[in-house]
Amino acid sequence: MRNTLIRSYRCNCRRHFRVDPSVLPLVIQRDRRKRFYFFYFSHLFVHWELNFVIIMTLFHFGNCFALAYFPYFITYKCSGLSEYNAFWRCVQAGATYLFVQLCKMLFLATFFPTWEGGAGVYDFVGEFMKATVDLADLLGLHLVMSRNAGKGEYKIMVAAMGWATAELVMSRCLPLWVGARGIEFDWKYIQMSFDSNISLVHYIAMAAVVWMFTRYDLPKSFRLPVTVLLALCVYKAFLMELFVHVFLLGSWTVLLVKAVLTGAISLCSLFLFVTLVHSN
């Protein structure tokens, strides 16, 4: 009976494994070794792939962070503010920005209810009135500049740097930290970083226009262009929303139009500022 079972086992081994039953332990050992190498290298590949994804997401976040924040640091260093030890002055300007934004939010929530019109209908009057509330930014910038003693350039840069940096931290820091480190790549974070640079130029120009408008010795020939520039600074966001709604602009086109409009306002403000300073 025992010999019959051994003979049957050897026949099954030849039929299924096609190997000599005497080397069957070697075959089993070789199979185990193959499976070990397969799982080992599979684990290494998955580990390398995860590390690659993490490194690429951090690299993307670093690019967005540098593109958004380094221009502010370079502007602070190269504008001479660091030589005047104006850091805490900029912090006070940022605190004024937070207070002004809180007042604007309370005012909008109280007097401007949510639009309940149909889908796709643009509330022109409501958005225009909401944009008018941005006049508080002009008052805030004037308050910051009036509390700082020094030359006009110093007042403008302190107010603009503090205002723009506070706006950058409050509106773009958290989205960059959460979104730019995601696995899926999205161009909107690069666009957000470019938009922060445009905002810096916008606030410098707006601070310069506010400083010129509040001067008691402003020539009469300057009043009209300065007033027009003030209106453009206040209603720029409203005009951009209107253009997007009417012309159905894409995200990159909107960014380009915003950059062109901000550049035009800045160049006009710079021309008026230089002319006014040299005329005195």
TrEMBL record:
Keywords: Cell membrane, Endoplasmic reticulum, Membrane, Transmembrane, Transmembrane helix. Belongs to the TMEM147 family. It comes from the Eukaryota. It is found in: Cell membrane; Endoplasmic reticulum membrane. It is a multi-pass membrane protein. Pfam families: DUF2053 (PF09767). InterPro entries: TMEM147. GO terms for cellular component: endoplasmic reticulum membrane; plasma membrane. This is BOS complex subunit TMEM147. The keyword Cell inner membrane does not apply. The chain crosses the membrane at residues 52-74, 86-112, 156-178, 198-214, 226-249, 255-277.
